[in-house]
From TrEMBL:
Coiled coil: none annotated. It comes from the Bacteria. SUPFAM superfamilies: PGBD-like. It holds the Pfam family PG_binding_1. InterPro entries: CHP02594 (IPR013423), Peptidoglycan-bd-like (IPR002477), PGBD-like_sf (IPR036365), PGBDSf (IPR036366). NCBIfam families: TIGR02594 family protein. Residues 3-58 form the Peptidoglycan binding-like domain. Gene3D superfamilies: PGBD-like superfamily/PGBD. This is TIGR02594 family protein.
Length: 234
């Protein structure tokens, strides 16, 4: 869903008496909580996800059509929204990255510590508040035990080894496509930024899907981006 679509959903929730917090087009915790209260009031599954049934109930009787999009992968939309976030060189840290850790109640001294796991944890924790996160969110390979296994597909959490398979080092991000030699990964701490890079298939360890979202079964996307493989993820 676009920011404009979320603004319409928030405005409708507010009009119906379910306070979503600021009407800013952002799918924050207050908005998710308001969606869940609305769903419970209508006898719907109170999962905080604005799927087709929730959308129809929200805009029932309205002359203007409901937003066309649905809230299928909110964590992936949050990841897309954050593209371009970069860490701060030197001793300083980017406040946005520190805020992710605060939102997860994590001790995180600064963005010189690898933050790919923190990025994934923020995207899921901020949009799926009932989803269990790994105990060691910052450890990329701890995400191998997150949620449920799935096939690589749009929005899936993708886990890779880094340095060597035996090192215990890893990288984690979200599936955004693939080509014959690599997966296209939308992730954090990729050359010190949130962006999309090619990660070699030979490093792939597994794909995972949140338990509290709509079930997996989405699309794979073949891309032709060219270029080299990612080598800077820490």
């Amino acid at each position: 869903m676009t920011r404009d679509e979320w603004t319409r959903v928030q405005a409708r929730l507010h009009k119906l008496g379910f306070n979503p917090g600021p009407i800013d087009g952002l799918r924050g915790r207050l908005t998710v909580a308001a969606v869940r209260r609305f769903q419970a009031s209508r006898g719907l599954v109170a999962d905080g996800i604005v799927g087709p049934n929730t959308m129809r109930a929200l805009f029932e009787g309205q002359t203007a059509p409901a937003p066309a999009s649905v809230d299928a992968m909110p964590w992936f939309e949050e990841a897309r929204r954050l593209v371009g976030t970069t860490e701060t060189p030197g001793a300083a840290s980017t406040q946005t990255i520190l805020d992710w850790a605060d939102g997860l109640e994590l001790h995180y001294p600064g963005d010189d510590i690898p933050w790919c796991g923190l990025f994934v944890g923020h995207c899921i924790g901020a949009t799926l508040p009932d989803e269990g996160l790994p105990a060691a969110v910052l450890r990329a390979r701890a995400w191998e035990r997150f949620g449920q296994p799935c096939e690589p597909q749009m929005g899936a959490v993708m886990v890779f080894w880094r340095t060597s398979l035996a090192s215990g080092n890893g990288h984690v991000g979200f599936y955004a496509g693939e080509d014959p030699g690599a997966f296209l990964i939308l992730g954090g701490n990729q050359s010190d930024a949130v962006n999309t890079v090619r990660v070699g298939r030979d490093r792939f360890l597994g794909a995972r899907w949140p338990l509290t979202s709509l079930p997996p079964g989405g699309e794979t996307r073949l891309v032709e981006v060219g270029g080299g493989l990612s080598t800077n993820e820490a």
